[in-house]
Amino acid sequence: MIHYIEETLCIEGRWLYKEGNIMSRHNYDALVKRGQLYVVQRGGNGRHALIQYSTIPERFKRKIEEKVGDPHRLVKYQAFRKHLVADRDAIQFYANYQLQDGRYLPTERAKEYHTNAMFLNAIHAVQNNTKAKRQALGGRKQGIWAQLTRIVNELKEEYQHTLPGNQLRLKNKYKKYINEGYTALIHKGYGNSNSRKVNEALERLILSIYTMNNKPYVQVVHDIYLQFLAGQVDVVDNQTGELFDRMDFYNDKGEPITVSDATIWNYVNDPKNRVVVDIKRNDRHQWNDVHRPHMHRRLPDYSLSKISMDDRDLPRKLQDGSRVKAYYAYDVKTGAVIGVSYSSYKNKSLFVDCMRNMFRFLDSLSLGIPAEVEVEHHIVNQFKDDLMKAGVVFPFVHFAAAGNSQEKRAEHYNRAKKYGYEKRYQEGIGRFYSKLEANKTRNEKVWYDDGTVSTKEKTYSYDQLVNDDLEVIERYNNDLHRDQKRYKGMSRLDVLQATANPNLVHYNEAILARYIGEKTQTSIRRSQYVQVQYQYYQLSSIDTLSKLNPKDYTVDAYYIPDSDGQISRVHIYQDTEYIDTCNRIAQYNEAQAERTEQDEQIFTEQRKYITKFDKEIKDKRENLHNVEIITPDNTDNTEPESWPAEDTNENSQNDESAWEYSEADQETDRNNGIDSL
After folding, report:
1. pTM of the model
2. CA 57 from chain center: how many Å?
3. Where along the chain do its domains lie?
4. What does the pLDDT read at residue 595?
5. Looking at domain 306-498, what is its CATH homologous superfamily?
6. What is d(CA 461, CA 318) in angstroms, rounded to the nearest whole number?
7. What secondary structure does DSSP assign to 114-142, as a single string?
């Protein structure tokens, strides 16, 4: 509609008298003939006539600005927007970027970083292309960064980027991005261990105080620590006899590192720490039942790029007069149906079922996630903040304008499928009011004694209508592609696979399961597994415990059953953050005489997990100090020549008894185990 010819702002003549309805065609022709509208470019041969904007009378300019705003500003932004294109490499980079603690970037943050990268890429394209610079900045050569900053700021609300609004800071951010790449946009505080208020030494001290023999409360631990910082008490390591140096718990500015009750509570209840402190605070049997993994056995047994989605009602009726609701997902390039679902009701389940079906189909063909999805508002709008939010599953999401059916590609394909294939293979397809005779359905009129009349229409069962539609989809997808000159002898599905976008993000079941899979709430038990549908699923590593919230083992398990309804793995989340993927635990035959090679392999894998767990717990336990609290004598600054040996030995002995088992202990455990059977 609005263009720059060299450095002259022009507007399409056709738009003035047609789409824009700024003036009549007669008025337009008269002004052109009198020279009051200067024609920069004549129309014809596919070109549009272009009128120099400055020659348009003021009364018409006011009408133009009322409709579209300031053309100078609009064309500038249109030219800049052309360079705002998706950066597939950036999407992949931020989606797979891992922090120092092993977690991935939060979804919202990854989307923000990609949007920022997209704007900086656009700035780079404008900066390094003379023609693009002239178009984007209105032909001006001075104050380039001031103009770029203004454009970036005015597009901030629309695109939700977080680039600086200051010209100098934006320029510096751009230079850093060009020099360092995608990592330049990642905030340095993410995953930085120095950002933790409580360092490892402080955490160890807190846990050591918490695991004293008198089992202090969190509030008491907090009081002792503050007294230690103030010099009111000393903390001694009973194993070495050394006093803790309180200056180790001061920061670089010489200020004491203070913590709150909540901080201490979080650390002692962090799952990775709770496993360790409980072994010192509680008896062995309780710790074993709550935390330690166990083996799993069974009884001896001998035996065994853009897509468009839309809903529609199937044209033929059910016996009760209603219609089957269907939801389709079409590939825009090929027109192939890549997802479908059916229901008696038009609700969100119909849409989610279609998504499930689509991703299973794409996964079976080893194809990635579509780059863009086009959907309507009335059902999908309720997913706009999660599943249908750009950057969560699909890099781009487009909500088609309500009431504009021709905007959606799916509408066109629905019509092509209906009148090209359903009509060919099914009877009763069409509309009774169709202008085209061939598409007009035939209804039998029934007259009643009271003079009323109704139409009798053939009806079908739900299963028959669904099966007929699935058969049509099979024929439709495997029929020849409409562009046989380019894809000679290839079907729609052939073209779909042969021309797949090479930059698609690969299928990630852990993410998709959260939106289209089944969900159940469960908890991590024995530091090893979760239970879902009466089956056990093992954590990939005991390091998973460190990703949980303090004293919170409850997780949401998401899973996508296979075609047989079996669940081979579940993906666990906590507070919408991905935690781990757990595979189903296989059981080995406990009778050695019956074990197969597969049983031995299962036994070995389970033993490896438990052995690794025991080693890590032992290492962390040995890292804790056996401490004692001493109140110094303020009248006597001399230190005691030695520490009571009896207390040290007694504490050490008690400490060891919590872990080392004597033969008598083992015999007692064995007898108790037999009795419990």
Report:
1. 0.43
2. 53
3. 2-69, 88-185, 214-296+609-677, 306-498, 509-585
4. 92
5. Ribonuclease H-like superfamily/Ribonuclease H (3.30.420.10)
6. 6
7. HHHHHHHHHHHHHHT-HHHHHHHTTT--S
